[in-house]
Amino acid sequence: MRYHACLQNLSHEDLLQIAASGMRECRATRILGDAMLASKLPEQLAAAVLLSQDLIAPVLSSLPLTDLRTARVCHLWRDAWHEKMLLPLGQLRHLRSVGEFGYATQVVAMPGREAVLVPNYEQHRLDVLCSQPAAFEEQLCAPDIDDGEVVETLRTPSAVALMADGLAWVVESDRYSVVKVDLEEKLRLHEIERSQLGDGAFPEDVAIADDALLVLSQRNGETTDHCVSVFSASTGEFQHSFGGWGKGRSELFLPTSMAVHGESVYVADRGNHRVQVFRHADGMHVRSIGLDAAVTEELWEDMLDWGVEYEGEDPRIGADLGEFDHPFGVAVGHGRLYVSEYEGARVQVLTLEGEPLHVFASPDGKPLGGICTSGEQVWVVGEHDDPNQVHILTIRE
């Protein structure tokens, strides 16, 4: 058996490079791609791999549409390539990457505007990015200079929840607190201190649900305070909490972000590699989205020792649609659930019930942070770094 006649316009080495390059971008076939190059597979086996119907989809899904050489490699790929071009409703494509932020992790849509707000941790301010044209627009709560002294309204902001009256609740990472601010007047109005979230708690994200403020917190490597605390959005008075630490059905481990939709709140349960859905009014657990796999107590204890840096085998990590590898961001928009993965380096699009629709690889192949929707666009934070960018994705109708 030799290559199909349609493949013979390219050399054996070129065909191996094409197949391997596509497979490397797809986590499920990355090892196979490297092994293919290392072992210099004979034509018979390489041809079987290239023409395999099981491999066409993951290879094509990871290759850019502009790679016409690959599109023309084999007529047997033509139908699959055509399907890729006819993107279904809601599938994403990359427009551009913008900004230079200092360790940004979250992004939030600004209601009534085609713009987003990025908490700029390093610069102690909130940056506004508009979508048309995609560029920096303004700064909110930026530090002032008074008699040669730097006056800061915010200190290391990392997440923000906007309210309708020009106010916002902002997570101050280094202070382990959540502060209510007047964005126009640059005034600090109220502060929820760390002790109100739980001993040693680290606030990760905030959201507004009706008249309630939801605060998502964790304690890295510890076994307490992995939960959602509910406060009054107007007064900051504590009401109740839900979630709790663990690997059980309604528990959380190292959660990183959340999104409110109607009565539900979706939580990126990063350490458990799933998305948890709760009813925010009473904390009732609704469902878990992700790979349902058992974790032994021995493995769980090992994970606790390492926390988010754990690098061993975890049966809950998956590369297929509807499975996650350290989900970091969650957003609801256009009747869909968007989940960005840190280690998985991709955005998954699912129904609100968790049925997978499609997947979009990270534009630069690097880890992804928080995510939000604004108009017909999806904004997702790039790898945590200084500086890092925000990727703008658009939805094809």
Kindly identify the CATH topology of the largest domain: Neuraminidase
Please state the oligomeric state of the protein chains shown. single chain
- Figure out the total of helices: 8
Supply the CATH architecture of the largest domain. Answer: 6 Propeller
Shape: globular
SS elements, strand count: 26
What's the CATH first level of the largest domain?
Answer: Mainly Beta
Strand content: 35-45%
Going across the biggest sheet, name each strand in turn.
Answer: 1-26-25-24
Name the CATH superfamily classification of the largest domain: TolB, C-terminal domain
**In the residues, how many domains can be counted?**
2
Helix/strand-derived category reads alpha+beta
Share of helix, binned? 10-25%
Mean pLDDT: 81
Low-confidence stretches: 1-7, 23-32, 61-76, 81-89
Question: C-alpha Rg, in Å?
Answer: 23 Å
| Major β-sheet profile | 4 strands, antiparallel
InterPro entries: 6-blade_b-propeller_TolB-like (IPR011042), NHL_repeat (IPR001258), TRIM-NHL_E3_ligases (IPR050952)
Organism: Emiliania huxleyi (strain CCMP1516)
Pfam families: NHL, SSL_N
Keywords: Repeat
